[in-house]
Write a structure and sequence with these properties.
Layout (H helix, E strand, L loop, with lengths): L3 E7 L3 H12 L1 H8 L2 E8 L14 E2 L3 H4 L6 E4 L5 H12 L3 E4 L2 H15 L4 E2 L10 H8 L5 E7 L2 H13 L3 H10 L8 H4 L2 H15 L9 E2 L7 H9 L2 E12 L2 E12 L11 E8 L3 E8 L3 H16 L18 E2 L6 E11 L4 H11 L4 E8 L5 E8 L2 E2 H12 L9 E5 L3
Parallel strand pairs: 1-2, 1-4, 2-3, 4-5, 5-6, 8-10, 10-13, 10-18
Antiparallel strand pairs: 7-9, 7-11, 9-10, 11-12, 14-16, 14-17, 14-18, 15-16
Helix pairs in contact: 1-12, 2-12, 4-5, 5-10, 7-8, 13-14
């Protein structure tokens, strides 16, 4: 074992700076765990003239200088993006260097490409999902004796904070978003988070480890939280639900369903009780049953903690398959078509306030073999309109989508109906 492991870091923003800080402050502890000294030999940034804290290692704007440095053992990529980090990863592996990344977007598209290129070279990506929660190692190693039956996760803290504030402060989505931006929980352009895309990238990574399935973001159901209103929050409260943006993976015989969307969960569900910016992931294995992982899903120190855990693992010379499978036993698994997903559903429909309206809607639902479970009618802002809030029993996604389209085309319907899925199990 080497007495010293040399690191090159690409990207010294919030996470990269935290990695450097923790490696320095906890160097004796980390060395004791790793079995050698961990030393940052060089860092790479885009803009050398930008004001930044002083580091005790040289900084350059040329990534090639660390990729080609024979003394550097591990490349840590924390710059973000998709194609450029993929190029960096390939070059690092071609130069026989271990590679660590927190880049969920790049992995959502190129994780299988990297696994093929890497061979026996280790790739660490614990920080790519749920910040400081060690969910990658849990799925890949700790739960390795289990067929994973399902994964259900709150894996975007921005959305969880917004929905929590809407529930607790009785404020609108727009007000909660502004508050999240003010506190630094949401970006100035929050579309990647509130649109569900950030969570989708993370879910795809988890699904690869759990099931060995190679899906891309374009292949799965992705819906964000921008259409959520106080009426939906009130309905959830009244009928015993919590409303969360969830990443859901389920195994159904030889198919896997993958989806990101707002979800109504029973209030007694453990994961539904997780509020604020925190993340939580429920994993159900065929032997272990349900396990719940909870913690900070973002932030410099939490994410840096996960990055350094990968460095320590590599320093111990442990080399395991990137996505957890040395050979595939799940060769017949396929991605379930979105139309074949089954769920219960909640609908919010704004209609003209006149006789016969409910009959028209129930007729359409009946034609699609959809039965109503609960129903509320509220006055809308316009005195001539009513808001219908209803939930259904379990039915096919294809049938609810047909019903929504038909209801939307009725003359009585004033806006396109809003639909939220319900998880009852």
């Amino acid at each position: 074992m080497k007495k010293q492991l040399n690191i090159g870091i690409i990207g010294l923003g919030v996470v990269g700076s935290s990695v450097a800080k923790i490696l320095k402050e906890n160097q004796d502890l980390i060395a004791a765990r790793a079995g050698c000294q961990i030393v940052i030999k060089k860092g790479v940034v885009k803009n050398l003239s930008k004001s930044r804290e002083i580091f005790d290692f040289p900084i350059t704007n040329e990534a090639e200088s660390i990729l080609e440095d024979p003394e550097i053992d591990i490349i840590v990529e924390l710059a973000g993006g998709i194609q450029e980090p993929f190029k960096i990863a390939k070059k690092a592996l071609y130069h026989s260097k271990a590679f660590i990344t927190a880049n969920k977007a790049m992995l959502a598209y190129h994780r299988y490409d990297l696994q093929k290129i890497a061979g026996d070279l280790p790739i660490g990506f614990e920080a790519s999902v749920a910040g400081g929660i060690p969910i990658i190692k849990a799925l890949r190693d700790g739960l390795g004796a289990n067929h994973i039956l399902s994964i259900c996760g709150i894996i975007n803290g921005t959305c969880n904070y917004i929905l929590t504030q809407m529930k607790e402060q009785n404020i609108s989505f727009e007000e909660a978003l502004k508050e999240a931006q003010k506190l630094g929980y949401a970006e100035s352009d929050p579309s990647f988070d509130i649109g569900g895309f950030d969570a989708a990238h993370k879910l795809l990574i988890l699904a690869s480890i759990a099931y060995g399935i190679d899906a891309k973001p374009e292949d799965i159901l992705i819906e964000g939280i921008t259409q959520i209103t106080q009426e939906d929050i009130d309905f959830a409260k009244e009928f015993g639900y919590n409303l969360k943006l969830l990443g859901i993976a389920k195994k159904d015989k030889e198919s896997i369903e993958l989806r990101i969307h707002p979800t109504l969960l029973p209030q007694n569900a453990m994961i539904g009780k997780v509020d604020g910016v925190m993340n939580a992931i429920s994993v159900v294995g065929d032997n272990v049953g349900e396990t719940l992982f909870y913690g900070a899903g973002a932030g410099g120190n939490a994410t840096a903690s996960a990055v350094i855990s990968d460095i320590i693992e590599i320093a111990r010379t442990k080399s395991s398959p990137m996505l957890g499978f040395k050979t595939s036993i799940e060769k017949n698994l396929t991605l379930k078509p979105i139309a074949e997903i089954q769920s219960a559903y909640y609908l919010r429909i704004i209609v003209l306030d006149k006789p016969g309206v409910l009959a028209q809607i129930t007729t359409i639902l009946g034609q699609q073999e959809i039965s109503i479970d609960t129903f509320l009618q509220r006055k809308a802002k316009n005195k001539n309109h009513s808001t219908l809030l209803l939930s259904t029993h379990t039915c096919l996604e294809s049938k609810i989508q047909i019903a929504i389209e038909k209801i939307n085309n009725l003359e009585i319907t004033q806006e396109k109906p809003v639909m939220i899925r319900i998880e009852k199990d």
